[in-house]
Structure formats: structure tokens, C-alpha cells
């Protein structure tokens, strides 16, 4: 059975309608019908689709890890070697393809190789003669030379925790209860962050007029907008989109 048919079966076994499942997961009923037909093209990419599968499994009390594993198995990219990709795109020939080289081509290659070797020998000879004519000057350290500072191995750069395209509105996202994936853009559509925020860490965002956030695990994070802590934006595992402006 495919992932879509497994989800449909789990929903029917749970006695849950499409509309009831849509209300429980905050997903559109049309999108749920597409997912049950193994159509994930309107989910916004594999990251969002994986989050939808997780939320659906949780709402139906199904095995979340197993359904996500099946999603990765069915929707994952096929692993191919670099040689296969080069052959497929005609960049190189397949090992079993014999390439015929004419005698004329071999002669041209031989003559060109001899010419290159001769030019290289001339250049090397000239460089050697110039080097032998230049006196070698050795510099001795003076009392005024400053010592080189020792760099501590602990002085490593830290991960970026703040992102800004202005100062009109600010949002701090703190993963206080669980990790979550996060997508943040400003009013002009520029992406400030796309990735995962780990448990116990915080990320700060500022922009001129507006910040748009999409949170993959709304119940795991707290938000502080323009210096004020706001109420929870959702439950564990819920995918929630929010926007905040200068007056929020």
C-alpha cells in the first residue's frame, strides 16, 4: 500500500471524515484528499509535506515515525553516482562505449604535446636564470618585532542567532519545549531564515514593516513580538503561519 492509501485507511478506521481531519490538523480538506491520492505537489515542498504527514498521523493516533519513514522512502530523491549523472547528461561517455580516434587526431595531439613541452622547458630555463641572478636577503628579527598572538582553540565563531532587514518590527522565537522547523520572510518576500531551531535555543528577527513566520511545531515554541510575549500560537506538531507588523 502507498502512503496515501495508508492514511486513508487509518482515517476510516478511526471513524474520521475528511472535514473532521481538516479541522483537527488545520489543513484544507482538498489538500487532505490530494495527500490520500499520493499527490504532495501542493504541500509547499518536502519539508512542509513531511510536517503534514506527521500532523495527520498524530491526529489519527497512527504510527507517526512509520508514516514519515514511508514518505521519505516514496518521495525521497534517488541516489545516483556522479558517473551516472555525467553519462546521462552526455558530459562523458559510458564505460562500455568505445571511442574511435583517427590517426590524424593522434598525430595532431602528439605534435601539440611536443610543442607545449618545448615551451615549458624554455620558460623554466628563463625563470631559473632570473632566480640565480637575484641575491637572497634574509631578515633578522628586531627587538621591535611584535610577537604573534596565540589563538585559543576555544575562540570559534558562534552560530548566527539574529537576522535583520530593518528595525521597525522584531520577533524572537524560543524553542523552549521542543525543536521546530521555521521559515521567516520580510514584507518584500526576502527569506531571513529557513531551517530548524533546536530545543533550548532562540532566534531573533527584525524588519522594516512586517515579518511572516511559518512554524512547523507551534506548541514547542514561544514568541516575543516587539518586546511583548504573546500567547501560544498552536499545539504540538501543528503547522502555523503568522504575521507581525510594527503595531503588533
UniProtKB/TrEMBL annotation:
<feature type="transmembrane region" description="Helical">
    <location>
        <begin position="105"/>
        <end position="124"/>
    </location>
</feature>
<keyword id="KW-1133">Transmembrane helix</keyword>
<dbReference type="GO" id="GO:0003677">
    <property type="term" value="F:DNA binding"/>
</dbReference>
<feature type="domain" description="Cytoskeleton protein RodZ-like C-terminal">
    <location>
        <begin position="177"/>
        <end position="239"/>
    </location>
</feature>
<keyword id="KW-0812">Transmembrane</keyword>
<dbReference type="Pfam" id="PF13413">
    <property type="entry name" value="HTH_25"/>
</dbReference>
<dbReference type="InterPro" id="IPR010982">
    <property type="entry name" value="Lambda_DNA-bd_dom_sf"/>
</dbReference>
<protein>
    <submittedName>
        <fullName>Unannotated protein</fullName>
    </submittedName>
</protein>
<dbReference type="Pfam" id="PF13464">
    <property type="entry name" value="RodZ_C"/>
</dbReference>
<dbReference type="InterPro" id="IPR001387">
    <property type="entry name" value="Cro/C1-type_HTH"/>
</dbReference>
<dbReference type="InterPro" id="IPR025194">
    <property type="entry name" value="RodZ-like_C"/>
</dbReference>
<keyword id="KW-0472">Membrane</keyword>
<dbReference type="InterPro" id="IPR050400">
    <property type="entry name" value="Bact_Cytoskel_RodZ"/>
</dbReference>
